[in-house]
Amino acid sequence: MEQNGIFHSVCPLDCPDQCGLLLHKKDGKLVKVEGDPQHPVTNGHICNKVRNMIERIYDEKRLQYPLKRIGPKGEGKFTRISWAEALSTITSRWKELIETDGSESILPYSFYGNMGRLSAEGMDRRFWNRLGASQLDRTICSSAGSVGYKYTMGGSLGIDPEDTIHSKLIIFWGINAASTNMHQVALAQKARKQNGAKIVVIDIHKNQTGRLADWFIPILPGTDSALALGLMHILFSENMVDQGFLEKYTVGHEALREHVLQYDPASVSKITGVSVDNIYKLARMYGEASPSFIRIGNGPQHHDNGGMFVKTVACLPALTGQWLEKGGGCIKGNSAYLAPNTEYLQRPDLLINKHTRVINMNLLGEVLLTADPPVKSLYVYSSNPAVVAPSSSKVRKGLMREDLFTVVHDLFLTETAKYADIVLPATSSFENTDLYTSYWHHFAQIQQPVIEPYGEAKSNVDVFRQLANGMGFDDPLLQETEVSMIAAALDNPQNPYIEGINYEALVKEQYMKAKVKPMFPGKLPTPSGKIELYSERMKEDGYPPLPTYIPLVNDGDHPYQFVPGPNHNFLNSTFSNNQRHIELEQEPRLHMNRNDAMAQGIDDGEMVRVWNNRGECELKVSVGENVLPGVVVTQGLWADTKGGKQLVNSLTPERIADMGGGATFFSGRVSVVKM
Ligand SMILES: Nc1nc2c(c(=O)[nH]1)N[C@H]1C(S)=C(S)[C@@H](COP(=O)(O)OP(=O)(O)OC[C@H]3O[C@@H](n4cnc5c(=O)[nH]c(N)nc54)[C@H](O)[C@@H]3O)O[C@H]1N2
Ligand SMILES: Nc1nc2c(c(=O)[nH]1)N[C@H]1C(S)=C(S)[C@@H](COP(=O)(O)OP(=O)(O)OC[C@H]3O[C@@H](n4cnc5c(=O)[nH]c(N)nc54)[C@H](O)[C@@H]3O)O[C@H]1N2
Ligand code: SF4
Ligand SMILES: [Mo]
Questions:
Q1: Pocket of ligand 2 from Cβ distances under 6 Å
Q2: pTM of the model
Q3: What angle do CA 367, 368, 372 make, to 5 degrees?
Q4: Which stretches are annotated as coiled coil (predicted)?
Q5: Each residue of 235-285: pLDDT tens digit?
Q6: Of 162, 319, 344, 353, whose CB has the highest number of CB atoms within 10 Å?
Q7: Beta-carbon contacts of residue 472 (< 8 Å; ≥ 6 apart)
Q8: Considering every ligand atom, which ligand is closest to the CA of 138?
Q9: Which fold has domain 144-332?
Q10: What three-state secondary structure class fits 445?
């Protein structure tokens, strides 16, 4: 390995931008991380979080060796052990459990701490299939919206974000893009400068993104489908629809025209809190602008009705025929364009029992406390459920169970790791070989090791190979090398867009673009091959077949809707243990409308107790006009960062959304009292 130089790399974080990076190395150590100016979409610009990545890589808190717990669960007392001891403790315990309780008593829990395809959904899945562990349904992020989008469009297929510089109207709908998709904001600003594009933001919180809008539209949480249906009502009644497009490329436009009559602007205004005038103004703006682009965010789909919201909003570009315009249409997610051969990567055929139970990760607390037969061992990697999972008081109660054998593989002793029996040190992505495919832009990238593993840290792929060995599984697929897995994953006859992208070419060129064909004319992967405004499949699945506004579930008698989203300087809970990132965020705040605060006699900067029957937090209030009355908002998954009670997920419901087993982080209600 070279000790000095500048090396290509890719940001491994769960962020749509998936920036190209350049790593500067001196005497074997990283000294600087910068954006790669040659990346065609991210152009050398990266966020603050990753510019500071070196502090995280060489943080003295980083785990170097395997550990075994010596104090009570949750306290964080551990002692160093060898890899041999760690692996044999785990595998011998699992062999016993398989004898006494069956392999389904073991539950993996993971998410996208590292977006590398091999790290996140490669060797791990092969191993769990072969072991016969309970299957984890990974629903915490965007699954409700993905299912909703699929009912309309057939799969995770949107437009090429690079085309959005041609858009004349850009709507950020429930996405805090200034923090969570900064290059989409850069493209929108370019469109504004070049073609006078207008930027509209529809959100429940006037955050960084709302502040950069030409027009910010505040809306009540969970009511966005009603707004979208109200827009459709006006588009049809004022003849602003593209009849030719509807006839040629959609199913159900006549039924939809009838159906949206009930969503008149006066009724929609009552539901959404958006004035009748503003509903007309937005509908006419949308009806007239072309090309127009909607960036659909994750916020509104973290509600009880989140799947239906995305299904609904995804109908809008079809009404005005926007899919035929360069820069017209929408993006919810674009992961289908770079889809590798997941069958090969994950080998579902290795699954020893086809009827293995499937556990929804959003129910982790409930599952640890009540599953029958019980979960006896939990193996957590690339995720920090003690902080990020809903109803965290229950999760933590589950993690406290003395009879639960818990293993955590991470770079740090996370809040979750403090409950583990065995902790394993993980490499950073810069120490690994992996394949990266963005879920927003159309470029694939490769990571090759730039630095040596930190201490005794190992990658996910490596740990699963070693666990397979320890379990005595002799299938050669469980020992495959990274390079061989990547090569095979890129050979996907189901996805013609990645033809020509292969391991060698990626190493040579670094950025390779999916060869995406225009969506229309063409056949969508929906049952009819067209955009399904009306969906027979939804009817079969028990939903209304046309887009419909369904109010949030009653979450109890508390005065405020509570929306705890992510923040600018952390990535979910990642970086919440880094002093510089903490200082940039200062502290978690509860944003509250001035009228609500006045009614309760709460002043700006005062501490309040936020509570419901699930838990409580103690937070400092920011009083202002950035949220509507009846709504309170926090930003950031603060973990136990600052001491005190700041764990917002102690308040969030573990209720499952309407589609895809999705999470409902933002559909909880709370009471707020002055401390
Ligand atoms: N800096 C930073 N970047 C990130 C992350 C991070 O933690 N920090 N996390 C990454 C991950 S995993 C994801 S999934 C994405 C998420 O990024 P986004 O797609 O931006 O999703 P959120 O930030 O959860 O919510 C987006 C917006 O929805 C708003 N919102 C909430 N409920 C509603 C509603 O009912 N209606 C409307 N119209 N708006 C609503 C919130 O106020 C917020 O401004 O970001 C990724 N990028
Ligand atoms: N209240 C509330 N809760 C939320 C959300 C919200 O908006 N509000 N957002 C939700 C969403 S959208 C998501 S995606 C989830 C995200 O939740 P998580 O996926 O748990 O994300 P992180 O908190 O960033 O934790 C990732 C962990 O993986 C570790 N890690 C990184 N790389 C590797 C690796 O290569 N190997 C191993 N073994 N570990 C690694 C990191 O150190 C970190 O501890 O949180 C959800 N929780
Ligand atoms: S977190 Fe997102 S914006 Fe920041 S460097 Fe990574 S991919 Fe780019
Ligand atoms: Mo996410």
A1: 14, 111-114, 119, 140-141, 298, 381-384, 388, 409-412, 414, 426, 460, 564-566, 571-574, 637, 648-649, 652, 665
A2: 0.98
A3: 60
A4: none
A5: 999 999 999 999 999 999 999 999 999 999 999 999 999 999 999 999 999
A6: 319
A7: none
A8: 2
A9: Dimethylsulfoxide Reductase; domain 2 (3.40.228)
A10: strand
